[in-house]
């Protein structure tokens, strides 16, 4: 079945500024419905990068997990997190903890690791009273819209994620690596091409160089795939960045990104990336029970600031290795 025929068969609605949407009507057996439509749903996601399914009535972690497992080959655990998620039985995760009054900028989940989810699944149990939409941006369109000279540099050099761990701000060593044992942490870093330095105060500083542009393992499409803007110091609220610089210095920020050769990425570049993302963002306000599927390589996702309570569960589906995506930067371990 082609992607186009799948979309037509499922009566998917395509609207400017919004992700593709499928309204199912009332479904009595969501896991059974998902099992019977998995191939067609995934074909639409492959073609368009995302699909919002409305009508499943997902209401709790158990029911959500049953649907997630029908739609994926495997659900991953979180890796090298920046904030600790709540893990529900069956591999269902809470959304990443992030201040409600701050936007989470566009990013590709775990694009700084050597193995990352190919499919992201989001289920809205409780929508916010205002804001809180999960935006989606086509990474191929973003790549085409970026200045050629900037893309060329990132293709040649890749990008680096720099993290400085401490006990006060962000995830600790134990929260990120699951242990405080230095030997175990060092073994993990070596296996995963992460440079590391233990600091005199006992803190840890790491660097990992990754490709910024990859090819989709199924379609071969070139995709802008990274977290250069999201994890940049220039995406942090200015007053928070100033506080962190005063506290830790520019070389001790909890996280930032740079070019693959180690040169700083300027504030102007980060703002340009976020502007291009915004120009290619589609969004739809959440309704209770919604399910959003996102091809994690073909599309980036974000989260708007919000008011009131909001509960969205996540699944990291179908792990993909970086070396399956024609990386432009060689990783040595």
TrEMBL record:
It is an enzyme of class 1 (oxidoreductase). Pfam families: TauD (PF02668). Residues 26-312 form the TauD/TfdA-like domain. Gene3D superfamilies: Clavaminate synthase-like. Its cofactor is Fe(2+). Transmembrane segments: none annotated. The keyword Transcription does not apply. This is TauD/TfdA family dioxygenase. It comes from Amycolatopsis samaneae.
């Amino acid at each position: 079945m082609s992607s186009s025929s799948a979309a037509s068969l499922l009566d998917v609605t395509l609207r400017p500024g919004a992700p593709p949407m499928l309204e199912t009507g009332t479904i009595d057996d969501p896991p059974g419905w998902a099992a019977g439509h998995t191939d067609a749903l995934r074909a639409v996601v492959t073609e368009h990068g995302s699909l919002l399914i409305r009508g499943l009535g997902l209401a709790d972690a158990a029911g959500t997990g049953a649907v997630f497992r029908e739609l994926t080959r495997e659900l991953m655990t979180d890796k090298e997190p920046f904030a600790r998620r709540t893990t529900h039985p069956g591999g269902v995760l809470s959304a990443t903890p992030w201040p409600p009054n701050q936007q989470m900028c566009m990013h590709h989940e775990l694009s700084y690791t050597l193995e990352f989810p190919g499919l992201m699944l989001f289920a809205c149990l409780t929508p916010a009273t205002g804001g809180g939409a999960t935006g989606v941006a086509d990474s191929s369109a973003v790549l085409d819209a970026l200045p050629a000279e900037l893309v060329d540099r990132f293709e040649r050099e890749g990008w680096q994620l720099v993290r400085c761990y401490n006990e006060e701000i962000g995830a600790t060593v134990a929260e990120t690596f699951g242990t405080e044992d230095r030997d175990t942490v060092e073994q993990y870093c070596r296996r995963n091409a992460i440079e590391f330095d233990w600091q005199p105060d006992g803190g840890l500083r790491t660097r990992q160089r990754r490709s910024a542009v990859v090819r989709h393992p199924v379609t071969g499409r070139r995709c802008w795939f990274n977290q250069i803007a999201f994890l940049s110091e220039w995406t942090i609220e200015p007053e928070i960045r100033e506080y962190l610089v005063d506290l830790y210095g520019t070389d001790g920020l909890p996280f930032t990104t740079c070019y693959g050769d180690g040169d700083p990425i300027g504030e102007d570049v980060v703002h340009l990336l976020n502007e291009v993302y915004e120009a290619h963002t589609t969004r739809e306000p959440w309704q209770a029970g919604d399910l959003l599927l996102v091809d994690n390589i073909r599309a980036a996702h974000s989260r708007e600031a919000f008011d009131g309570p909001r509960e969205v569960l996540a699944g990291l589906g179908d792990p993909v290795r970086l070396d399956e995506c024609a990386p432009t930067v060689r990783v040595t371990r």
